[in-house]
Design goal:
Elements: H1 3-31, H2 40-69, H3 71-75, H4 83-105, H5 107-110, H6 113-132, H7 136-142, H8 149-160, H9 168-186, H10 189-199, H11 203-208, H12 210-249
Helix pairs in contact: 1-2, 1-4, 2-4, 2-8, 4-6, 4-7, 6-12, 8-9, 9-12
């Protein structure tokens, strides 16, 4: 890995730490007055999700730019010029390292084994991209999934602020979250693996060697298994919320206050 990538990883790690400890605590009270009333433990997760949303927007939009305009990567998905992709991946690796440290420091309230597996699998695969510049198209394609993260985080923000689950804003975000999550993480699975299969047996694939081949396939399958699990959780949650919202609109008993969550642990994965 070149010094540029090391610098981006380190800068990304430090930048997200700064967002967590300085920017979000100062900006969030202005964006959401209810932030100041949250329990101290909730402040940490709120700030972490603020950082997560910033990361997702930076990386997701950069990913779309590469997908649409980087002809070298699209022409050669295995060995195309990885310069822009490595920059985007380095930003993500810095974020993943920052987030693993955060989870370790606050495991009792934010710990999630699925999320740790997700981060480790991603770091393992992205390490080959940064060190050898291989598979730039596929690495970039995986990062499209980050575009669903802002909606997942917004769901948690609404719950932390005690918005009714059947409120119009909450339901609208839930629908958008489910649709976007499906589009960027589930619906793309056939086209992704079709592209993967098209490389099998080619000189470019053979040139990779066993290490990158195994890292690529195993990490892809692992991440998609996790995505399917999370898609199931999200769909089940949306079904319940829509059922309550439609029931209330039809004149049934209003939602009881004790149906709302009183505490919220880490819910990155739902």
């Amino acid at each position: 890995m070149e010094m540029r990538e090391w610098g981006v990883v380190a800068g990304s790690f430090a930048g997200f730490q700064l967002l967590l400890t300085v920017v979000s605590p100062r900006l969030s009270p202005a964006l959401a007055p209810g932030f100041s009333c949250l329990a101290p433990g909730k402040h940490t997760e709120w700030n972490s999700r603020f950082v997560s949303t910033v990361h997702a927007l930076i990386v997701g939009l950069f990913c779309l730019y590469i997908l649409w305009f980087d002809d070298a990567v699209n022409a050669d998905p295995v060995w195309g010029d990885p310069s822009l992709v490595k920059l985007n991946v380095a930003i993500t690796c810095g974020y993943l390292l920052y987030d693993l440290l955060l989870l370790a420091c606050h495991w009792s309230t934010m710990g999630d084994g699925f999320f740790v597996c997700h981060h480790l699998a991603a770091l393992y695969a992205y390490g080959f991209v940064l060190s050898r510049g291989v598979l730039p198209y596929f690495a970039n394609f995986r990062l499209i999934s980050e575009l669903s993260t802002p909606f997942v985080n917004q769901r948690w923000f609404f719950e932390a602020l005690s918005y009714p689950r059947t409120g119009s804003l909450v339901v609208a975000n839930g629908v958008a979250m489910t649709v976007v999550f499906f589009l960027v993480r589930i619906a793309v699975i056939p086209s992704y693996y079709s592209k993967v299969a098209a490389t099998f047996g080619t000189p470019a694939f053979t040139r990779l060697g066993a290490g990158p081949q195994v890292a690529w396939i195993l990490s892809s399958v692992s991440l998609d298994v996790l995505n399917l699990i999370w898609m199931y959780r999200i769909s089940r949650g949306l079904y319940k919320v829509l059922g309550r919202a439609l029931g209330r609109a039809g004149g049934s008993c209003p939602e009881k206050q004790n149906d709302l969550p009183k505490s919220h642990g880490n819910s990155h994965a739902d």
